[in-house]
Amino acid sequence: MATPGKTTLEQQRAADAWQRCQNYGKEEVNAAKGLPALIMNSGLIQVLAFCHEKGKANAKVAQDLQDWLAQRFIKVLPKADFETLMANLMNATPADYQAITSEAFAWLRWMRQMAAARIRD
C-alpha cells in the first residue's frame, strides 16, 4: 500500500498515459492498441524503428513511449530522441533491455485504456 503523498509506479504510469493522450485521435488510439502485439512479435527496437519510419500517429505514440522509458531508465536511456535512444537500446545489457521492454508493455497497458477513454469523435 502506498504511503500518503507517495504514488505507486502503476499510478505514475496511469497519470503519464492520461496526460500524454489528451490530444490523441482515433489513429493514435489504434496505434497504441497495436503496439504491444508488434513488440511481442518483433521486439522493441524493431517496433520503434517501424513507428519512426511510419510517422504520424505511430510516431507520436512511440515518442510518448520513448519519453516515458527515458524517464524511468535515465542511466541507460539518458535522452528520449530517436537516434540516441536507439543507440542506447542496442548497447543495453540483456537485463536492462528486458527491463525496458517489460516497462514498455506496462506503460502501454495504461496508454491503451486511457487513450480509448479520452477519444473524441
The CATH topology assignment is Peroxidase, domain 1
* Low-confidence segments: none
User: Structural class given helices, strands, pairing?
Assistant: mainly alpha
Q: Given the structure, what is the number of helices?
A: 6
Strand content: under 5%
**The top level CATH class name:** Mainly Alpha
Residue-averaged pLDDT: 93
Q: Look at the structure and name the CATH superfamily.
A: AF1862-like domain
Order of helices and strands: HHHHHH
Please give the share of residues in helix.
over 70%
Give a quick account of the main beta sheet: strands, pairing sense, barrel closure.
none
Radius of gyration: 14 Å
Shape: globular
Supply the number of structural domains: 1
The CATH architecture can be named as: Orthogonal Bundle
Calculate the terminal CA-CA distance, rounded to whole Å: 37 Å
DSSP strand tally: 0
List its traits.
single chain, 121 residues, mainly alpha, Peroxidase, domain 1
What does it look like?
The chain has about 120 residues and is mostly helical. The protein contains 6 helices and no strands. Helix 2 runs antiparallel to helix 3 and helix 2 (about 25-40) packs across helix 4 (about 55-70). The longest helix is centred in the last third of the chain and has 25 residues, at about 95-120. About 30% of the residues are buried. The model has no long low-confidence stretch (mean pLDDT about 95).
